[in-house]
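Human: I would love a firmer grasp of how sequence relates to backbone shape in proteins. Take your time, and here it is.
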Amino acid sequence: MRILISSCPAHGHLLPMLPLARAAQQAGHQVALLSHPSVGGLAPFLPLLPAGPSVPETLAEVMRRSGVDARDVPIDESAENAQQGPIDFFVHARMDLGAEQALAAARDFAPDLVVADIADLYGPYVAAALGVPWAAHGASLPFNEQLARFFEAATIERFARENVHFTGPVAYLDPWPDLLLRPSDVYPAPRIPVRAQPHAGDGPVWQRPAHGERPTVLLTLGTVVEDPQALGGALDSLLELDVDVIVAPHAAGDLGGRTPDPQRVHVAGFVPMKDLLDSGVDVVVTAGGAGTVLSALSAGVPLVLLPLGLDKPMNADRVASVGAGTVVNAPGEIAPAVAEVLAHRHYAEAAARVADSVCSSRPAPAALDLLIETALTTRKSR
């Protein structure tokens, strides 16, 4: 089978899909990635079909059209803002800037099945245009009901402009474990749980330098840090405690010019999350991105969350609701929150329960088998 993986060009969208892509390749399927070249290096084992704009180019286009910075609009905002933020970004700007290129690349690859991240429209678009089934991959939590309606209506209207009839997904691959879900979560297709896995990379395993006996805190605000002052302020707060800190900024400038004490702080840079967690981490401090949250909890590590826009407040709320972490509102609140988590065992115990829930989901090969069975059954019935 020829399987096309389609993703918005952002680490948090693509990385959670890679275990499924690897499983497909290892099972003998032909797999390709449809996305912008800026993320091609995250999946060197996949042929890249370049299509569409980068994230900065898309943000600039939205700003040019509406004057709105799409990063600043939470995805559970009012209907009006939802249209101005996520829908302008994912539907209007990305489709206008890259749909034609995406369809041409997909037509050449001739997929039998498309798997698209939940916010990507190139995958559903080329699947509908080529008459093949597609599945959604939900690295983030499912859209709330109001945003889902607006998103689908905008998608149908935008596809119609290209004379393409939108077809819904045949399945929804969901790495969020049952313990973090709620009855109010609504899925656009039958849910296939797939086990969340920390990103493992393809190069040599990162090794943590020698360290002492102090607790270790991993500080990462994600792969895109729009506010270096927040990361630097978080580090300043942590250094009030008797802990070692691993800082994983995406770029050297993210620390706001600080040169931390190497006896207590190791600046790792962009390192695969699996390597960071395997190095011995007691608490993760994060902005609440889905990839970091699921990676930490899959390893049973509790969190302190400083949610910074988009879906991060929702993710943080789910973690706090099961007792696997605590939420703060400013960098200066991080030190007492970390001290609280280190001092009370119930946070780690709750994180371990979530880890058990993660392990109960299907591993990627089993989820792939069920997806292919579902896709083939759906295709025969049409």
In short: The chain has a mean pLDDT of 90. The two ends are 19 Å apart (CA to CA). Residues 216-359 form a domain with the Rossmann fold fold (CATH 3.40.50.2000).
